[in-house]
Design a protein that fits this description.
The chain contains 6 helices and 12 strands. The chain is α+β, with helices and mostly antiparallel strands. The chain has an 8-stranded mixed beta sheet. A two-stranded antiparallel ribbon has the order 2-3. The radius of gyration is 17 Å and the shape is globular.
Length: about 220
């Protein structure tokens, strides 16, 4: 398992974003590194945890619980076949393009050591937005991405450090529950009756997901 590509985005003015100034950092390009990764601060204030990377819409992206976004190269390869066109590393706006890592199958709260210093913890799935659809220029993309339920993972920084392309990725902790990134994604999108089961991941959940799951249980019960 390794970091196949380390990707950074620069501000770019586009017509397809809801950002009030019309800018986005979703178009990420590979760099060799080294690049420092650290906790960026709370959502709404902090942006990307990856030095040199841009998060423009801090209302919905970035912050400590979405400090880094990872997507598996194998899943990008599948999308290449489905879309019938190349999907280069970084094309989904991911900071980390991994190799031989089941990113969407990772457990919420799972921890990854990347290189000798950096320790990350899986926090949530990626919810597709209008900017993502516009960036790929695929009609109906939000609906299609949601239906496939291979969202990639956001991670928070537990121990900061420098990383570079080619660094080894080691899973150093896997929690004892069923809540994978893909499971959490399905629960918060098309299969909301799954939300009570998401609570098994506890405080490792993104605060927004935790709030949704608790709200669902208060209104509908556990369904068990």
């Amino acid at each position: 398992m390794k970091l196949l590509s380390l990707n950074l985005g620069r501000p770019k003015t586009v017509a397809y974003t809801d950002h009030p100034e019309g800018v986005t950092g979703i178009d990420k390009q590979p760099v060799a590194g080294p690049v420092r990764v650290s906790a960026p601060g709370p959502k709404g204030i902090g942006a990307s945890g990856v030095a040199g990377d841009t998060v423009c819409d801090t209302r919905h992206h970035g912050g400590n619980d979405q400090a880094v976004y990872a997507y598996a190269r194998e899943d990008l390869d599948t999308w290449e076949k489905l879309l019938g066109r190349p999907v280069p590393s970084g094309a989904f706006g991911e900071n980390l393009t991994t190799e031989v890592v089941d990113v969407s199958g990772a457990l919420i709260g799972e921890r990854w050591r990347i290189g000798p210093e950096l320790l990350l913890e899986v926090s949530s799935s990626r919810i597709p937005c209008r900017t993502f659809q516009g960036h790929l220029d695929e009609k109906g993309w939000v609906r299609r991405f949601t239906a496939e339920a291979v969202p990639g993972a956001y991670l928070r920084v537990v121990e900061p450090g420098e990383i570079r392309q080619g660094d080894a990725i080691e899973v150093v902790h896997r929690p004892d529950h069923e809540v994978t990134v893909a499971f959490e994604f399905r629960a918060v999108t098309l299969e909301r009756p799954l939300l009570p089961r998401v609570l098994a991941a506890g405080d490792a959940l993104h605060p927004d997901t935790l709030r949704k799951a608790r709200g669902y249980v208060e209104k509908y019960g556990t369904g068990s």
